[in-house]
């Protein structure tokens, strides 16, 4: 399971389904942008930026219960902060990150569509 | 008619007589300065768009800090001009001033009560102005070196060396000017959708020269990442298919929302809701924090930078501070460390560090800095409820 939205209220309290929809939309668009930022940081070999991005995403991925993405970002943060960087290892990590990020993006989009469909029916 | 020269320094002085010697020293320099004792003028000068030094000389270091940060609070981020904040302090305040300098609460300080090193204020002001892009140093050495007997060679070495440094500085500054003009020209063309190959070629050429220039290596190193980014953008302009677009930062503002509070919080319809300050540079975390905190009937304030946090801490009483560590302009733990010494309304406010950093050494640093709690991000409702209950925070509906 790429995401787990059952824990969302732990972070934000009780919210209406409209608010939940807004939040999911923010998570979804935010993740797409952050993903691209991460790709660019690796491309430009900007390890400080990569460390900042993965550090931020490590926490925010937990809002929507993306545990695998969280762990992957934690690993990315450690790699980016290491004194000696192995580019092959970073590339392997990026493949893994892309897989988890896209899975979370897909799951968020699906959850969003389901919420929208629910609203349409009511 | 000639235009008035831009101000370099605004001196806020509560008693000009105390600063008479300092002013005499300033008069001998190239500094263009104004003196005021008006808070309104200080606020105006923080938003007039002119890079400058703000120097506060009040009866104490603490009162200078309070005044500056009160004024800062009145200026929105987008109107704030680039400036350096300096204070005049007494000899016995030097240690505290140094602590504030290290924490970046102030940019520098001048020990002028009494003023032992007569020209030190000028060197400090010139150095700070240079950081703001204003160079007041003389172009030539107008005081000839005094030759010492049997030591003429060393004078030549000094003169040649100084000349070499001046030449390098001149070349570098000329290069910056050319680059500035080329960017302005390309920008003007871009607004008319007329960017030419010549614009791109010139920018690339100057960019290469800047990257290769070894003068002021620290500055160059700091600029390197920006130059690389610009380089990538230029490459994209020249070869649009070659580089992926640089995604923009998403900066959602925390959105207000109002939700019922959990039963464990004390609800008081008479008293004001307890205030929580969240010092956090991540917009998403701030937005979630706002929803959670306001949803619990508490009052939420947000500071995305250390400076904003300091301004708010001087102006409003908070019952709890949620402090991130990595901030764009400072380290949250330095603020936590300094807060008790600032003798402000929040000197005894409880600080809970809220971070994604799980390192033991960081926890130890937080404890040393006076933080009462160390919370791992993201913030959870249960944790916040416990904190509110422990410190008797009042919800309001």
Model description:
The complex is a heterodimer of chains A (122) and B (397). In chain A, α2 (17-43) runs antiparallel to α3. Chain A has helices spanning 8-12, 17-43, 47-60, 67-81, 87-121. Chain A is elongated. Chain A has one domain. Chain A is an all-alpha fold. The mean pLDDT of chain A is 92. Chain A is 79% helix and 0% strand. Chain B has three domains: 9-131, Rossmann fold (3-Layer(aba) Sandwich), CATH 3.40.50.2300; 159-238, no CATH class; 266-395, Response regulator (Rossmann fold, 3-Layer(aba) Sandwich), CATH 3.40.50. In chain B, β1 (9-13), α1 and β2 (33-36) form a beta-alpha-beta unit. Chain B is globular. Residues 239-263 of chain B have low confidence and may be disordered. The A-B interface holds A 9-15, 19, 22, 26-27, 29-30, 33-34, 36-37, 39-40, 43-44, 46, 48-49, 52, 55-56, 58-60, 62-63 and B 225, 228-229, 232, 244-250, 252, 255, 257, 259-260, 262, 282, 284-285, 287-288, 291-292, 295-296, 326, 356-357, 377-382.
Coarse shape of chain A: elongated
End-to-end Cα distance of chain A: 28 Å
Number of strands of chain B: 12
What share of residues are in beta strands of chain B?
A: 5-15%
> Looking at the chains present, what oligomeric state does this protein adopt?
heterodimer
Kindly state the number of beta strands of chain A. Answer: 0
- Mean pLDDT rating of chain A: 92
Q: List low-confidence stretches of chain B.
A: 239-263
Strand residue content of chain A: under 5%
Mean pLDDT of chain B: 81
Number of individual domains of chain B: 3
Helix content of chain B: 40-55%
